[in-house]
Specification:
The complex is a heterodimer.
Chain A: H1 2-33, H2 43-53, E1 56-59, H3 64-82, H4 99-119, H5 123-154, H6 159-167, H7 175-191, H8 210-213, H9 219-244, H10 256-283, H11 292-313
Chain B: H1 11-35, H2 41-65, E1 72-76, E2 85-89, H3 91-114, H4 127-140, H5 144-162, H6 171-197, H7 205-210, H8 215-233, H9 242-248, H10 251-276, H11 284-305, H12 309-336, H13 340-375, H14 386-389, H15 391-404, H16 411-424, H17 432-464, H18 471-474, H19 481-499, H20 501-516, H21 543-565, E3 569-572, H22 590-593, H23 595-605, E4 609-613, E5 624-628, H24 632-652, H25 660-681
Antiparallel strand pairs in B: 1-2, 4-5
The chains are: A mainly alpha, B mainly alpha.
């Protein structure tokens, strides 16, 4: 019990501490891949600290929704990330939210952020919110279909149980799992505003989605929103790692060495995931906004197909 | 009223009390006719309605929590002479009484303040308590005649309320369409109950229960029940009247119609299909969730295309009714396959959503009503920035929006989560059709939940956020205290049912037990008020903990940042990429917000097409964007039917102008053909 609480606390701090590093690492790799030096690995931390110390400039027409949203978005994303097993499963609060609830928590964060985009009453805020919600309207069902697939296999929607099941012997190679993995990766790209759906580095006006939505933010508010987006990237990589590469995750009460090994494995998985993301992003071009629906529609169909295969293959 | 009451035991006391509440409401309605012109009439009618519905709410709630007070029956010597009027209070009735009277009490509270804006109180006040009485009566009725009588009474009194502002454009048509669809629904229910009662005419529910119909008859009754209650609840394609009629009524009545009357229709479906019909066949579990899934997605897509705030909310009622019917249909599928625990889960999800939807839909309609009273506008394109002028209404509306979008930690999420859990139990169903269908329905449900969030970002964002688009929006004032009290009571309930769902699920247990013979594990005994659908190992959810964790991290984060980093704020003009425009017309509108979704989904569902007319350079005419959309159910189902009816009516019109010879021939012909039918029959 106390150990579980300690693991939970460690995890809470770990995701927050690692998230900017992951973002800096992906940026670095991307820069190196195109032959640039790139910013230092620790640049995101510096950016966040600097932004936190700056004063906030807010439009006259901004309401309390605009001021509250960064804190809520940050808190919601952080709590969601803290409930995904990263290096160990025995999290004391893991029963509070299953995978569906984690998806929905991210939905809550997005809901607030989209409202904040509309709050000031500018055309860029509106364009960002509107497109973000369009993307989410396809990404969220696709994600839920992936959740369905996983939980039908594992007999549980609880991430820790799914991880335990995937570590077990009875999994084997399954078509459903492969389809679910592809769908999950597509959703993760869209949800984190990565290429080909959105470009995190762009400030080219008409192609922005996420960046347009948060265009009016500055100072500590912007820092929180940036931190939340780093944490979200980490969260999706953690979900993929925990479900599709559960090796090395320490189970409850396995001793200190196992936790250390779990931590090392987790960092290695993040490094591999971040590297693949950077390679993928450099290799591919961004899509037109209205091609995104085809992309995510494909993810939804893959997820549905994966679920259907499981429904059909389960003979009672 | 010195009636001979045929009571049995103390349980009937509660039932008697509830019937007295209904009588009080009816008397208030009659009294309101006499004094509608006086100034105090409004306060009196809403005050009495508030007290009466609160008493009924408490009685029904107490009955639900203390099952020994259930089961009272009562027969009054009114109605059909050989039948009498049967009333019964069982767990299902008690639960729906809670829903109806909670909605009724808060609507009356809202009406105490909102009713002052009413320009024609004489058209509202008499029918309002009658409408409440009618809904209560439907729930308590225990024979087909009383049920149908109360059902029609409810329909007609709500029709009168829809027609309260009959001079406004569109309202007369809305009322007409409502009347036609209500008649269709009642016709289906009359036929359904006729089949249930059988040739012997046992119209009491008790008699029907003892002689369940054969499988073929059951199938017909199921379809009739689906049409009869579905037309009232708003199942696609019977929904067409709902988004016209619900918004036409005064806002607190809209809340009652959308939040509560549709639930009475759900009650009718549950009563007929789960209680009166015998054991279900498995294909019922395919038809009902499919209708529900299509309804859910269509409803939310219609809502996204809408920029009239009240009509948008009405379309969302269609969506939520779809979600409820998904749950009900899954329960039928499980029950047909002898999986009582899963059936209990699906039915719990559906009924919990019934409760949740009545709470947040009433709240949202109250919010829309407050905006309407303050600005005189329902069109979102002419609002904006109301959060500055009406901060409290905006806050309550935001809670309602989050709840209806199924976002944790509010209540809408819990019932959708339970529905998802029920879907995850369905691979065990043996029928292949169900195996294929249920995952697709899960996808439809997920799609509707995500689209609902987009829709409420639009509804809240365009109406309350941004900059005011018109003078009326700039000059809006906060609504009165009664209305705010009603909204905040419901907002608190949204949060409470979201973070402490275990108690609500436990309260549903007697209902679920009566309908499916099983119930969910007792939730209140679990640690930390977690809820689990079937077993802890499968999944669990704890809204309370999530709520506190988020509040705590947000609070600590804000405190730390303000203390150690920076706390200063400077107000300035908006940045807007360096080109801020002073005109509020440059903001995103409701139409532009939903444009991406219209392009993605609308081209298939609504055959939507866009045409852009840009004048050549040098021409100073404005550019134009034309959007064309088709309402497919309306164009393919209703327009041809209406055309056929008017064609037939025109042909038959000639029969009115025959000579006496002609009429005599007609009568003779009819007589002869009836006699022929009779001989052939025997």
């Amino acid at each position: 019990m106390i150990l579980d609480a300690a693991v939970q606390l460690c995890q809470l701090l770990l995701v927050l501490a690692l998230a900017p590093l992951l973002a800096g690492y992906v940026r670095k790799i991307k820069a190196r891949l195109v032959g640039r030096q790139g910013p230092p690995l620790l640049q995101p931390y510096r950016d966040l600290l600097r932004l936190l110390r700056k004063e906030v400039v807010m439009a006259h027409s901004a309401s309390w929704v605009f001021r509250v949203t960064p804190y809520l978005v940050f808190a919601t994303t952080w709590v969601a990330a803290a409930l995904v097993p990263t290096f160990a499963t025995g999290l004391i609060f893991s029963y509070a939210a299953d995978m569906i609830a984690i998806v929905a928590l991210l939905g809550s964060a997005r809901f607030m952020l989209a409202l904040a985009g509309l709050d000031v009453g500018t055309s860029f805020g509106g364009i960002g919110s509107s497109r973000e919600m369009m993307i989410a309207s396809l990404a969220e069902p696709a994600m839920l279909m992936v959740v369905f697939t996983l939980s039908l296999l594992a007999g549980s929607t609880q991430l820790s149980s799914i991880a335990a099941f995937m570590q077990g012997a009875g999994v084997g190679l399954r078509v459903s799992l492969a389809l679910a993995l592809v769908a999950l990766v597509m959703v993760a790209l869209a949800e984190n505003a990565r290429i080909p759906v959105d470009n995190p580095a762009t400030h080219l006006e008409l192609t922005m989605v996420h960046e347009a939505m948060i265009l009016e933010y500055s100072g500590r508010h912007l820092a929180l929103i940036e931190a939340a987006s780093y944490v979200k990237l980490l969260l999706y990589l953690s979900i993929i790692a925990c479900v599709f590469a559960p090796w090395g995750i320490a189970e409850s009460g396995q001793g200190f060495a196992a936790y250390l090994a779990g931590l090392a494995a987790y960092v290695a998985k993040l490094a591999a995931g971040g590297f693949l993301l950077a390679v993928f992003e450099t290799a591919i071009a961004k899509m037109r906004v209205f091609r995104v629906s085809d992309f995510l529609g494909a993810a939804l169909m893959l997820g549905l197909l994966a679920t259907l295969l499981l429904f059909v293959s389960q003979v009672t | 009223m010195s009636l001979r009451l045929l009571t049995q035991g103390g349980a009937a006391l509660v039932l008697e009390g509830l019937l007295w509440c209904i009588a009080t409401l009816l008397a208030t309605g009659i009294a309101a006719i006499a004094m509608a012109r006086r100034g105090a009439a409004s306060a009196l009618v809403y005050g009495v309605s508030l007290c009466t519905t609160t008493i009924a709410l408490l009685a029904a709630g107490a009955a639900l929590l203390a099952p020994e007070s259930l089961g009272g029956t009562l027969t009054l010597p009114i109605g059909l002479p050989w039948l009498g009027a049967h009333f019964r209070l069982d767990a299902l009735t008690a639960f729906f009484l809670v829903v109806v009277n909670l909605g009724g009490a808060t609507a009356s509270l809202f009406g105490l303040g909102h009713g002052r804006h009413e320009e024609s109180p004489g058209r509202v006040l008499p029918f309002y308590p009658a409408f409440l009485a009618g809904m209560n009566l439907v729930l308590l009725a225990a024979d087909a005649f009383t049920f149908l009588f109360a059902w029609e009474f409810m329909s007609l009194s709500s029709w009168a309320l829809v027609m309260a502002h009959h001079r406004r454009p569109g309202n007369a048509f809305a009322g007409y369409l409502y009347l036609v669809m209500a008649s269709l629904g009642t016709l289906a229910l009359v036929l359904g109950f006729g089949l249930l009662a059988g040739p012997s005419g046992g119209y009491a529910f008790e008699a029907i229960r003892q002689a369940p119909p054969s499988a073929q008859v059951s199938a017909v009754v199921l379809m009739l029940a689906l049409i009869g209650t579905g037309s009232k609840a708003g199942l696609v394609p019977l929904h067409v009247w709902l988004p016209l009629a619900h918004p036409a009524a005064p806002s607190h009545v809209s809340a009652l119609m959308s939040g509560v009357m549709t639930k009475v229709a759900v009650y009718g479906f549950v009563r007929i299909v789960f209680d009166l019909l015998g054991p279900p066949s498995w294909w019922w579990g395919a038809v009902v969730p499919l209708v529900g899934g299509v309804t859910a997605v269509m409803g939310v897509l219609y809502a996204l295309m809408e920029h009239d705030l009240k009509r948008l909310l009405a379309y969302h009622t269609v969506e939520n009714i779809g979600i409820i019917f998904i749950g009900l249909g899954l329960a039928l599928a499980f029950e047909a396959n002898q999986m009582p625990a899963a059936a209990a889960l699906a039915l719990t999800a559906a009924l919990f959503h019934v409760f949740n939807h009545s709470v947040f839909k009433s709240l949202l309609f109250f919010g829309a009503g407050a905006v309407l009273a303050s600005t005189g506008e329902r069109d979102m394109e002419r609002l904006g920035g109301l959060i500055h002028r009406m901060p409290l209404t905006a806050f309550a509306f935001l809670i309602g929006s989050a709840a209806i979008s199924a976002l944790p930690p509010f209540n809408g999420f819990v019932s959708e989560w339970l529905t998802f859990q029920a879907i995850l139990l369905s691979p065990a169903l043996p029928q292949w059709l169900l195996k294929f269908l249920v995952p697709a329905i899960g996808a439809l449900l997920a799609l509707s939940a995500a689209l609902a969030a987009a829709c409420f970002v639009k509804a809240f964002g365009i109406t309350f956020l941004g900059r005011p688009r018109t003078q009326v929006a700039r000059e809006a004032v906060e609504t009165d205290r009664w209305s705010l009290a009603a909204m905040f009571a419901l907002a608190a309930l949204c949060l409470l049912a979201g973070i402490l769902p275990g108690y609500f699920i436990d309260a549903l247990a007697p209902v679920i037990n009566a309908m499916t013979g099983a119930s969910l594990p007792r939730q209140e005994q679990l640690d930390w008020l977690t809820i689990v659908p079937v077993a802890q190992s499968r999944s669990s959810y704890n809204g309370l903990l999530l709520f506190f964790l988020i509040a705590l991290t947000a609070g600590i984060g804000a405190e730390v940042i303000h203390r150690w980093a920076s706390a200063s704020v400077r107000r300035s003009a908006a940045w807007d990429c360096g080109f801020p425009d002073a005109s509020p017309a440059t903001q995103y509108t409701a139409g532009s917000f939903s444009q991406p979704i219209r392009r993605v989904f609308g081209s298939v569902v609504f055959h939507a097409s866009e045409e852009v007319h840009i004048p050549p350079p040098g021409d100073s005419r404005a550019a134009r964007l034309h959007v064309r959309m088709r309402d497919v159910p309306w164009d393919t189902l209703y327009v041809p039917t209406a055309r056929f009816v008017s064609y037939a009516a025109e042909r038959l019109n000639r029969v009115q102008f025959l000579t006496i010879r002609g009429y005599l021939t007609l009568v003779f012909g009819a007589l002869v053909s009836l006699l022929i039918v009779l001989t052939v029959w025997q």
